[in-house]
Amino acid sequence: xxxxxxxxxKCLPALLSETxxxxxxxxxxxxxxxxxxxxxxxxxxxxxxxxxxYASLLPFLLKHHIQTAVLLGGAHSNHVVGITQLLHEHRxxxxxxxxxxxxxxxxSGNALLRNMLLAEExxxxxxxxxxxxxxxxxxxxxxxxxPQAFFIPEGGTCPxxxxxxxxxxxxxxxxxxxxxTGFDHIWIDAGTGLMAAALIGMNTLLxxxxxxxxxxxxxxxxxxxxQLKRVWKWFEEELQLSLPPAHNFELYPPVTARAFGSMNAxxxxxxxxxxxxxxxxxxxxxxxxxxxxxxxxxxAGRQQGHVLxxxxxxxTGLMGVGRHFTAPAPGARL
Length: 334
Description:
By secondary structure, this protein is of the alpha/beta class. The chain has eleven helices and ten strands. It has two domains: 3-46 and 160-325, Rossmann fold, CATH 3.40.50; 50-157, Rossmann fold (3-Layer(aba) Sandwich), CATH 3.40.50.
């Protein structure tokens, strides 16, 4: 069995969407033809790249007769909202360890959806100053429940989610064949880093010439390289694939608002500008920082040829930051 088939046999086809791609005219130049891959269009409550991870994570949970999934995430986590819907559908119990917000905000966006999906008794709130030990707490809680419990780390970043994450590049290759050309550069954001690491791994495994550009929205370069090393081991454990050393990738901090979860006037202005020029809805935590960093790099002439930006989703999170857009951002055109 070839390795693409090996990947697909571990996935639930119903959770895999062949998302479209299209040109981004305002990003293009004589030297670069820029496209966006619309992972954000794969669904509402569960969308984007996370849906791909669940395509192999869910079959793993069902195969091993998991009765309780123990989750870890922030109070506004896209992941917690997404995976909880699938767990309820398949009658798998849920307990979530969530980072307690510094202040109370109106119930909106992912906080509203999480409140609808989880009762208070299903949540253990972890104070921000104790968050460094939250993963150990959640993992111990799952161990104490016994073998029918499974701990799912932040972002769904665990070995069973890798096959689903690998399908992103398989879908991109399908579309390259339709376009009649390959992408010279692919941009993706990284939170916990699994999707970006899987993209680099598949790019390496297939011997492609594409350069992968990773914007580190959460975590620094040392953290991502550690995650990359872990994912390399998962390729062998989950897919029996031995990868050569990673190549053809670059790491970037966001060009502005570098602290995770932060946003500023430049990010808000860019969200409005991109929505009104391209009809593209970006959330200010992840995708806006990816697209803004890519745009700066493209404007400086650092990438040429065919360029692809991955819109990883996060639309439900955007609904939770409306208070930051109640007045026009400075310089925004209305």
